Amino acid sequence: MVSISVTVNGTASGPHEVPDEMPMVDYLNEYLGLTGTKFCCGIGVCHACVVIVDNPDGTSETRRTCISAASTFDGLSVRTVESHAKDETLSPVQQAFVDNFAFQCGYCTSGFVNAGTVLIEKLAREPVAADAVGQAVEAGLGDHICRCSGYVRYHSALRDYILSQPGLTRS
Amino acid sequence: MMGKGPIWTRRRLLIGAASAGMATVIAPYMSSAAGSPDTIMPDGPGWTAGGTIKYRIDGFAKVTGAKIYARDLRGRDMDGWPEETHHAMLLFASDAQHAFDGLDLSMLGESGQPDRIVLAEDLAAAGLAAEGFFASNLLCAQGAIPDYLGQPVAMLIYADFGRFTVARTALTGEARAVKRGAAGPVRSTNPYGAGRYTRVASQSPMGPDVFSVMLAGDVEPTGYDGEHLPIWSTADANGDAGAKAAFHGAEIRKSLADGTVGKTYRQSFLTQSIDPMFMEPEGGIAWFDAASGKLSVVIGVQSPDLSLSGISGMAKNATDGFKLTEVDGTFMFMGGSFGGKDHTIIPLYVALAGMFGGGKTVRLALNRFEQFQFGLKRHSFRIDSQLGVDPQTGKFTAFTCDLNADGGGLKNLSSPIASLAAVGSASAWYTPQSDVTTVVSQSIAVAAGSMRGFGSLESMIGMEVLVDQVASDLGRDPIKLRRDNALQSGWLTLVGNTPNGAVRTGDVLDALEKSALWANRAADKAVYEADNPGFSYGVGVSCVMQTYGSGVDGSMGSVALAADGTIGASSGITEMGTGVGTAVAARIADHLGHPATTVQTLTSGLWDALQLEPEKDPWGISQADQEKAAQNPRWTLVGTVDTTASNGAAFGTHAPGIAAWVILRCGLWPAAKSIWSEGSFGGQSAGDFVTFADLRWVDGKLTARGMTPLTLEELAARAHRDGLVTGAMTHASNRWDWATAEFNVDGDSFEVAIDALAVQRGGRATWDLLDRANAKFPSTAAKGVGRNSWALLSRSEVNVPPVSTERVGAGYFSCSGTVVAVGVDRISGETRVLGVHQAIECGRALVPDIIRGMVEGGIVMGIGQALTEYLPLYEDGPGDGTWNLNSYRVPVSADIPVDHITVDILAPLGPTDSPKGLGELSMIPVIPGVLNAIHDAVGARVLSLPATPQKIKEAL
After folding, report:
1. Cα(B407)–Cα(B215) distance, integer angstroms
2. In three state form, how does the secondary structure of B354-389 look?
3. For the residues of B76-127, what is the DSSP string, one character each?
4. Distance CA B2, CA A85 (A)
């Protein structure tokens, strides 16, 4: 057993005693009741389970929670899909996905939202040329598996949003 | 509009001693309570802003991670359940040639041992056994040879999650836990089903036929020999149906052998076993109160009532402590399904977890390894076909097809799947003579069941590749060859039935021909090959006509119009991602001018008012018995609704749409007349004769022949004030045709395609307007509908479709075609899909954005089956427990042409076209399209899926 404390969606949780090898997705689901982070393959292939880890330097990254032990998140600040909408107003990435009918069953959506969010935040710091947005979206979402939608709308929704925001691209 | 409310609810099965086992009782709508899923599901703020659908009704919930799937819930989430949740897992046999010799859990250590182990002997002691559709050994008994690879042998239950997760990690891939004993004979039984579908046309393709299934009835073998091979009737032109089929079939095969029907093309094609690979592995929670005998389950399945009856049947002979008095199911959204959660046996194991859970909430949720090991698979088919073609005209003259499928270790839906494979084997093409046989065999493979395409997919792939071969050999344009052979409207299908409505294959082919991918293929090839040395460019085409509906389908709908104009709607169908809830909202707008404000799916808790008495054997009832039964105004062909056979748009929205029409007819129309006749001398309507048929919704307002346009709010208020109809509840039955009935509401008689109707009048004392104000929130609206008084109307005349036109009499078809462009590495055989265009006709598109998304998804799933997805059937396959997404490769975005997938939804023929099914349809033509494109590129005719680089090289 190991004791962990994690800041999740801005709220400190823990210390909790958890098994050393317990995956982070189980910690979120079972200990915190945050089931928006989805278990799918359990081996880190599909990326449905990714959450956002906010680094001290202001950057952020996605991490797969099905293959990462909860103990490896000790002391970290994490955002899950439940964090993005504020006062029933969706985040830009969430809004882009619903406006474009990007998903169907929705089980993969949490992972796509988190990955899209990290990409947007990265582009806000490091804009790319407009003609490189497609590649950036592929790099940001390309590891994620969706079985219903065929990816077309996830990609086009995010790409269109990025191109609509001057601060995310550079000339 | 926003609110909180359910878009699912419960069904309950009460088990009563007086009813020889059980009686289905529709539960009152579950109350909202803090912590229950009813209060967790948020509607999407603004999803119908401005009276139009902006996004999916479930979009907000899904994009915010709301608890909407069965895997999301624990005891703490359920009102009245034990908060303490225990956790269960199954252990499976990865060997079906040696006896199960007990468990070895020593690797878990003393502290890691489960708190409860459930074995076959425990089920026997409890009197628990699967029966009926699910009849099988739920757990392999110690000392017995497992029936199939992946058969469960034990259930382990842990009281705490920490020890559970450690144990599960240790047991994943741990073959030693399930001990192997002595070798023994593998299980071998007769096939799950076999059939023969022979047709001989007369001079006219419109019939009457000389011989067909529709005329003669089903033909099955007379028995099976010692090798489990079917024994077909001896040919006799004057014998029974089987003998006649054998006679005509032999004649057809002889004509193909001796060349009297032109040039004969032969093909042997193999389709592979694949996994639906829905994103949410199956699972759920259960709680058993032994004192009361009530078992509560939360699951997500396509066939809710079958799950409940299966659980109930399992306990039919239960001993004390396991007897069930009630099974209460809460059915959640599905995180994907594609047929794989239809008629699934896994809910029975969820129920067992609860029954052995010591009164606690128990969660059984498969991980992905387990889902691969135990979840339903697509059948693998061997398809041997012969097609006779007149080389001068290119017309198809005769067709035979022998379909052999591997059904794996459970019967499941193998037999009807084989039947649909036969029905679909001619694809969209007309042949005047055909002889098709099916055999679906038992094996020790992981069980196969329903999956997107339901048999037709497999047989159509074979046919579409065969047609391409004919076109290549005869030097004919593959689109023109298809157009020349397309089954036309009113013509008879391979089983001798006429498709309902216009057959639009020609329109689809025209759209394909005009597509840029097809029209520019020569120029595109030149450019691509110049830019990609070593690669060859090819374009393939395919077009299919797929049936939708199961042959016995129900539809249930309820619409309640509140005084403020908000519309609460319900449908009896489940949501697996296809957007049926949003489609229901759209269909209601046909009659009420606005999409529904809230939509609940699977709200069978509402239907008490209809007092339905569903037929117990809708598939087997005789015509005489049906006619007699239909005299009872409460009798219906089928009570509830599964989510199956692409039935969402066509069936799931049907009854809600008619409910909305009833409100228009019996509520808003008299309300409008009341408003328009206000004032002296008959008001504004005095100078004109306004009829119901004149009503039109224009910019969200109702008008007719120059009358002042009225808002829905105005009309609703008047209807409530005057006690007019403001709520309608409907049930409809379909057997490739809708049951119809006449109803009389306050002196107004009409005939509609429903067989049960109840109405709610706004003026009744029992209708609380405050509740109605709350109707903007789904749970409140639904409870108002369910609890208040309903005036049940007696149908005066009913026309139920005739019997014996079920599965093979498929009447509903839609059509799609695909053009696929590929680049193939001439050395390695690697194939890149470069572009896909699909033209699809689906009647009236209720929510085009959802349809486009579904088609795009079907295209990508088709690419996966065409190129990468594959499961070995036996010892090296998923039954060994080692398969996951690292070895089973589904497409990611890099595998598909994300920016070069286009969808052309054909315009309906008219505004009254019904919506058609399309979920399966969108996937099917993609697979042969890819194969035909590979052939066009490099000349390799791959006849075994998936088309791996190795197979392409071999074909070269």
Report:
1. 29
2. HHCCCCCEEEEECCHHHHHHHCCECCEEEEEEEEEE
3. GGSTTS-S-EEEEEEEE-S-SSEEEEEE--GGGTTTT--SEEE-HHHHHHHT
4. 15
Q: Angle CA(B855)–CA(B858)–CA(B864) in degrees, nearest 5?
A: 150
For residues A170 and A128, is the Cβ–Cβ distance under 8 A? yes
The string over B319-350, giving b where at least 16 C-beta atoms fall within 10 Å of a residue's C-beta and e elsewhere, is eeebebebbbbbbbbbbbbbbbbbbbbbbbbb
ipTM of the complex: 0.98
Q: Tokens 């090959």, residue?
A: B529
Q: Confirm if A139 and A126 have CB atoms less than 8 A apart.
A: no
pLDDT score, position B4: 32
B574 touches chain A (CB under 8 A): no
Measured in angstroms, the CA of A110 and the nearest CA of chain B are apart by 6
- Residue of chain A whose Cα is closest to the Cα of B76: A33
pTM (predicted TM-score)? 0.93
Please tell me if residue B1 touches chain A, with a CB cutoff of 8 Å: no
What is residue B786's predicted lDDT score, i.e. its pLDDT? Answer: 25
More confident: A130 or B21:
A130
CB-CB under 8 Å, A106 with B333? yes
Chain A / chain B CB contacts < 8 angstroms:
201
Q: From the centroid of its chain, how far is CA B282? A: 17
- Verify whether the Cβ–Cβ distance B165 to A19 is below 8 Å: yes
Ranges of residues in chain B whose predicted pLDDT is under 50: 1-10, 16-41, 765-795, 805, 807
pLDDT at B808: 59
Nearest Cα of chain A lies from the Cα of B122 at a distance, in angstroms, of 29
Q: Which has the closest alpha carbon to B665: B693, B640, B687?
A: B693
Q: How far apart are the first and last CA of chain A?
A: 52
Phi-psi map region of B665: left, alpha, beta (phi>0 left; psi -120 to 50 alpha): alpha
Considering only the beta carbons, identify the residue of A33, A147, A151 that sits closest to B896: A151
The confidence score (pLDDT) of residue B759 equals 92
Q: What is the pLDDT of residues B827-838, one digit of tens each?
A: 999 999 999 999
CA pair distance B289, B354, nearest whole angstrom: 9
* pLDDT the model gives residue B2: 30
Nearest to B898 among A35, A84, A155 (CB): A155
pLDDT at site B18? 31
Q: What residues have CB less than 8 Å from B876, skipping those under 6 apart?
A: none
Find chain A residues with C-beta within 8 A of B899's C-beta. Answer: 134, 155
Please give the pLDDT value at position A7. Answer: 97
The reported pLDDT for the residue numbered B868 is: 98
Q: How far apart are CA A166 and CA A164, in angstroms?
A: 6
- Predicted pLDDT of residue B572: 84
Peptide bond into B208 cis (omega under 30): yes
CB contact under 8 Å between B579 and A41, yes or no, is no
Q: Residues 893-922, chain B: which have Cβ within 8 Å of A? A: 893-894, 896, 898-899, 901
- Our measurement of the distance from residue A146's CA atom to the centroid of its chain's CA atoms, rounded to an integer in Å, reads 14
CA B886 to chain A, closest CA, distance in angstroms equals 7
- Rounded Cα gap, residues B601 and B330, in angstroms: 12
Question: Is B504 strand, coil or helix?
Answer: coil
Q: Which helix (H) or strand (E) segment is B770 a member of?
A: helix B769-773
B79 close to B33: Cβ distance less than 8 angstroms? yes
A101·B61 Cβ contact <8 A: no
CB of B418 closer than 8 Å to CB of B453: no
Q: Which residue has the tokens 């058609």?
A: B916
- Residue B31 has a pLDDT of 25
Q: Side chain identity at B125, as an amino acid letter?
A: A
Is residue A56 predicted with pLDDT exceeding 90? yes
